[in-house]
Specification:
The chain is mostly helical. α2 crosses α5. Helix content is about 70%, strand content about 5%. A hairpin with a 7-residue loop joins β1 (about 80) and β2 (about 90-95).
């Protein structure tokens, strides 16, 4: 397989991966789309952040994040709090319900990954993890 064929294969397989991830998200928890799960995970990791920070971090349109956050608020999974340093800014935080559901879905997702990767040798898992980290770390062409 030459480089062009390899890139085509990678693109095709990552598209399949994304489709499966979106489909499985609904089965894990009916209230939590893949985007919602990802946003909740980020809020937990960061101990809260602004909606604009979510949009920038995931390269999403602000209106997309706004709709997702509104749905998460209606489901009582996130809440807005004033930033203690700047009362003009609202910071999104997980509610207790949000933490509980995120934890449940995380356990289910982890089990699904472990099942799918159970027969992989440890060195393949490590290599695959390294490749994914490297792929996702790329931030695009640098402007000079």
């Amino acid at each position: 397989m030459d480089a062009t064929e390899a890139v085509e294969s990678i693109q095709r397989e990552m598209t399949i991966f994304a489709r499966r991830a979106r489909a499985s998200a609904g089965r894990m928890h009916p209230e939590l789309s893949l985007v919602s799960y990802t946003l909740l995970g980020h809020l937990e990791e960061q101990d809260g952040c602004r909606a604009t920070d979510l949009a920038a971090h995931y390269a999403l349109d602000k209106s997309t994040v706004s709709r997702q956050v509104a749905a998460l608020e209606r489901a009582e999974l996130v809440e807005r709090r004033l930033d203690p340093q700047d009362h003009r800014v609202q910071v999104l935080h997980l509610t207790e319900r949000g933490r509980r559901i995120l934890a449940q879905v995380t356990v289910s997702r982890r089990a699904a990954f472990q099942e799918r990767l159970a027969n992989w040798p440890e060195e393949d898992l490590a290599r695959f993890a390294d490749y994914l980290v490297r792929y996702n770390a790329w931030s695009g062409p640098r402007e000079e």
